[in-house]
Amino acid sequence: MIRNPGVLIIEDELITASSIEELLLEEDYEVIGVAREAGDALRICSQAIEPPAVIVCDINIKGRIQGVELAGHLKELYQCEVIFLTAYADTKTVKAAFETDPVMYVVKPYTDVQLLVALQMAFHKIYQQKKAPIQTRLDLTGREKEIAMLVSQGLSSKQVARKLFISIETVKTHRRRMLQKNNISSFPHLVYLMSTAG
Amino acid sequence: MIRNPGVLIIEDELITASSIEELLLEEDYEVIGVAREAGDALRICSQAIEPPAVIVCDINIKGRIQGVELAGHLKELYQCEVIFLTAYADTKTVKAAFETDPVMYVVKPYTDVQLLVALQMAFHKIYQQKKAPIQTRLDLTGREKEIAMLVSQGLSSKQVARKLFISIETVKTHRRRMLQKNNISSFPHLVYLMSTAG
DNA sequence: TACACAATACCCATTTAGGGGTACAAATGG
DNA sequence: CCATTTGTACCCCTAAATGGGTATTGTGTA
After folding, report:
1. Which of A77-81, A171-175, B184-188 shows the lowest per-residue confidence on average (mean pLDDT)?
2. Which of A112, A89, A78, A109 is nearest to A8 (CA)?
């Protein structure tokens, strides 16, 4: 039987963390781990059988790396959804958090129902994405992404070459490989796929 | 002096509506009106000097048209942001609401801070959109959009021509006009703009 | 250390796109 | 009813993109 996709809890207050874990387990969510700080989170994710689908992340956690940064990092790494959990409601924090495009921003004090709704939304979003898998994912290296972005901004290969201080032949090689690797026929299509499949 | 963009409150419980209005006014938000049902909301919006930027909408309101449908309609009409307000947390309602891509889904009972955070997120999103108005909007006719879509799917001009049973020269004319009218230099860029600016 | 991969760069070739001009019938809007 | 827009189509040309092959360098990692 297929288990539900997992949830990672990032919260340094043990009592809060435990209560969240209990609540999620009662509702039959799969908790892959509880992290107290960034290092824990990364270790849990790398050791887990499958990456987290949703992370519930306190914004104010111990350690150098703060919640917003950590969540943004994990989201990019594992393409998971983010739910922020915080007592902070100041404009600066909200804006920073909002930049990572979280599914929900749950402000403390919150009710169990509020947190569960956030989870529902997260899993609904994941389900939506799985329903429409146009292309698995674009396979692009760092340099390739960079060139693709410039081309989508309207630059020609020659202009890209000048901007990056490389030969136009190199740019052409990169473009050719991008299309071949991903089995697509033209750059307009690649730009389209980048915008939809991320 | 420029006023803040307006907020429309849609809530049929008068006491709740009033308390929300008071809270928003205290925080210097501009409340353009309080609607008790769909008809009120539409009337207020059409009579307002400027359309609402954000609507705070109760999901369970009086009348035939429900909150989710109304909010979706208003969002499309006025390109405003939606904040849902509800006591309902059942999966079906949450999913339906989530379809309209609201900025926030505030579950009752909620604190003032939770509602204000939602407002902050909504205005932050609006501000972000205004900050990056790369191109007002793409000026494309029906046929042009059709051709642009096919090109973004990877078809060449020749393939588009065959698919639409028109001359390749016609396709090229359309493509040339699209770029000239919108003052852009290549189709990858046009596809990029279509995906961002709609 | 050996191997894979990323990034660089050149050669060849053909096809396509971009940019210019012109024209005309049909549809649309004042 | 007339002017504008839209869709259609042709001509020209140059620049750019696509597709193939090959090779060197550094950078990690098995």
Report:
1. A77-81
2. A78
Average pLDDT, chain A: 87
Most distant CA pair in chain A: distance in Å?
60
Q: A145 near A117, Cβ under 8 Å?
A: no
pLDDT at A137 over 80: no
Q: Across the interface, do A192 and B191 touch by the CB < 8 Å criterion?
A: yes
The mean pLDDT of A96-110, rounded to a whole number, is 89
Strand partners, A81: A54
Q: How large is the average pLDDT for residues A81-102?
A: 85
Average pLDDT, rounded, for chain B:
87
DSSP state of A24: H
Which of A130, A150, A128 has its CA nearest to residue A140?
A: A150
Q: How far apart are CA A83 and CA B85, in angstroms?
A: 18
Residues 155-194 of B near strand D (Cβ < 7 Å)?
164, 166-170, 172-174, 186
Question: How many angstroms away from the CA of B193 is the closest CA of chain A?
Answer: 9
Rounded to whole angstroms, how far apart are CA atoms A7 and A3? 12
Residues of chain A above pLDDT 70, percent: 93
Q: Is A152 on the interface with B (CB under 8 A)?
A: yes
Three-state secondary structure string covering A80-131: CEEEEEECCCCHHHHHHHHHCCCCEEEECCCCHHHHHHHHHHHHHHHHHHHH
A89 with B184: Cβ contact below 8 A: no
Q: Which two tokens stand for residue A2?
A: 């297929």
CA distance B102 to B80: 10
Which one of A94, A114, A154 has the shortest CB-CB distance to B189?
A154
For residue A166, the one-letter residue type is I
Q: A78-82, B9-13, B135-139, B192-196: which has the minimum mean pLDDT?
A: B135-139
